[in-house]
Each structure stands twice: as structure tokens, then as C-alpha cells.
Design brief:
The complex is a heterodimer of chains A (136) and B (93). Chain A has 136 residues and is mainly alpha-helical. Helix content of chain A is 73%, strand content 0%. In chain A, helix 1 packs antiparallel against helix 3. By secondary structure, chain B is an all-alpha fold. Chain B contains 3 helices and no strands. In chain B, helix 1 packs antiparallel against helix 2 and helix 2 packs antiparallel against helix 3. Chain B is elongated, with a radius of gyration of 16 Å. Classes of the chains: A mainly alpha (136), B mainly alpha (93). At the A-B interface, helix 1, helix 3, helix 4 and helix 5 of A face helix 1, helix 2 and helix 3 of B.
């Protein structure tokens, strides 16, 4: 019934080890997302954890399907390359957005939202004669 | 014996990934600020990708791989759009 009975023991053990490693790393990353206090601490934990976790699970999948189908199955490299490329880009863009929002909130403490800044800018298209601009 | 080990490690890994998705969903719903919610959504879809790959290993089919690939592609686009919205106030200028 289950296809796990068809593959040799060493492949099953290697797959089990990599699957457990990947799941543990992902769980550690998500617990870091839950437990750390500041946003700039929190943003590191899930990116590192999920990248390493999905790498391990993809290695396990490559080993398992290569042994099961008795030919090299390496199309999981697509997801590996994609996740490895996109996770740092996501991190960088999100932290830049957070920095921008923090700066806007520090300059104008009553404006916690970027939307408020944009609305004020729309209300006052030109800066006043003293050159006071609402944007930092 | 080793097939039993693989089976139970897959079950345990699925439980751990489910717990990780619960942590990410908590951060997405209760995040103090908007960037925490976006980060929770990012972690949630990557965990969903891992869960689909584990289903694929468990069932022995390669069908789940395409679903995981599509989740990865669309999730990246969604996170980039949300981050750009937080930065600029609009997505398409």
C-alpha cells in the first residue's frame, strides 16, 4: 500500500534524518518569530529557519524520489534556487519598509501609518514658505 | 523496520510543521504592527510549501511538487507587493 516499503533501508533512514532536520529547523525559526521581542530581531529567525528547513526537506525529497523511481530526480533544485534567491530579497525589502515606517513614526509621532503621511502630502502639495515638508 | 522509521518521522515532521504554521498564524493575526503580519504571512506560506513536500514524500507522488512550486512563486509576489505597499502606500504607481 504505502510506497515506503519499496525502498532500501539506507535511503529510508537518510530521508527520515533530513525530513526531521528540516522540520526541526522550520519549527525553531517559527518559534523565534513567536518569541523574540523586537521586529528587527524577529525578522531574522524565520528567514534563516525556513531557508535551511526547506533545503533539508528538498534534499530528502531528492533522495527519496531518486531511489523510488530508480533514476536521478533533481527537479527540486528549482525550488531550492528560487527560495534561496527570494528569501533575502524579501527580508531586505521588508526591513527597508519597516525602517521607513519607524523613521516616519519618529519624526511625526502621531502618524503611525504611512497612509497618514501620504494623505497629508496630498493635502499640502507644496511645502510651506518655511520649507517644512511632512516627509522625512 | 526502516520503512516504519520513515513513516513515523514523516508524521512527526508534519506535526512540527503544523506547529510552526500555528506560530506564524499567531504572529500574523496578533502582530503588533503591519510588518509583523507580513513576516508572519511569509513564514506561513513557506511552511505550507514544506508541508506539501512532506505530503509528496508520504504519498510517493510528484504531483505535490508543482503545487509547492506555485505556492513559492505566488507567495513571493504577494510578499513583495505587501512590502511595497508598506513602503510607498500603493502597489502600482
Amino acid at each position: 500500500m504505502t510506497p515506503q516499503a519499496d525502498i532500501p533501508g539506507w535511503a529510508a533512514l537518510l530521508t527520515a534524518i533530513f525530513v526531521m532536520l528540516g522540520a526541526s529547523l522550520t519549527l525553531v525559526g517559527s518559534l523565534g518569530l513567536l518569541r523574540l521581542r523586537r521586529f528587527y530581531d524577529r525578522v531574522h529567525a524565520p528567514t534563516l529557519g525556513t531557508t535551511l528547513g526547506i533545503g533539508s526537506v528538498l534534499i530528502a525529497s531528492m533522495i527519496y524520489f531518486s531511489v523510488l523511481q530508480q533514476r536521478p530526480v533533481i527537479h527540486e533544485i528549482l525550488i531550492t534556487v528560487f527560495v534561496t534567491l527570494t528569501t533575502p530579497i524579501t527580508l531586505m525589502v521588508l526591513v527597508r519598509a519597516a525602517l521607513f515606517r519607524d523613521e516616519a513614526a519618529a519624526i511625526m509621532p502621531e502618524a503611525n501609518q504611512t497612509k497618514v503621511v501620504r494623505e497629508r502630502e496630498a493635502d499640502e502639495p507644496e511645502a510651506g514658505p518655511d520649507g517644512a515638508s511632512p516627509r522625512p | 523496520m526502516s520503512a516504519q522509521i520513515l513513516h513515523w518521522s514523516l508524521v512527526a515532521a508534519q506535526l512540527m510543521i503544523t506547529l510552526a504554521m500555528a506560530c506564524a498564524a499567531f504572529r500574523m493575526f496578533r502582530g503588533p504592527r503591519a510588518q509583523d503580519r507580513v513576516l508572519g504571512l511569509d513564514t506561513l506560506y513557506v511552511s505550507g510549501m514544506i508541508l506539501l513536500l512532506l505530503f509528496g514524500i508520504q504519498s510517493g507522488r510528484t504531483l505535490y511538487f508543482e503545487a509547492a512550486l506555485i505556492i513559492g512563486l505566488l507567495g513571493f509576489v504577494g510578499t513583495m507587493a505587501l512590502a511595497k505597499f508598506l513602503m510607498r502606500g500603493e502597489v502600482i504607481e
